[in-house]
Amino acid sequence: MIEQSLKVAASLEARSAALFVQTANRFASSIQLSVDDKTVNAKSIMGVISLGLLDGQDVKIIADGADEKQAVERLERFLSAVSV
């Protein structure tokens, strides 16, 4: 299992949340997003939207599985992008 904390560079609204979920679904690993005390499945559009991620917010990506390292790296790049 890998955990990576980071700050979100841009708010995740419906379109960017959908792109994030599509990216997460490319990986076989179990992936979760955690903000404060709320953790959701990163492969669930409703879960990701329910977090209401805003720019500058702290988030943790948690991945567990065969491609966990690649998943965390790719999703970290996605959330750290200046323009999502």
Any overview of this molecule?
- With 84 residues, the chain is of the alpha+beta class.
- It has a single domain, classed as Histidine-containing Protein, Chain: A (2-Layer Sandwich), CATH 3.30.1340.
- It is 37% helix and 27% strand.
- It is built from three helices and four strands; from the N terminus they run βαββαβα.
- It has a four-stranded antiparallel sheet, with helices on one face.
- β2 (30-35) and β3 form a beta hairpin.
- The model has no long low-confidence stretch (mean pLDDT 94).
Tell me briefly what this model is:
The protein is of the alpha+beta class and 84 residues long.
Name its key features.
Histidine-containing Protein, Chain: A, 4 strands, alpha+beta, 84 residues, 27% strand, single chain, 37% helix
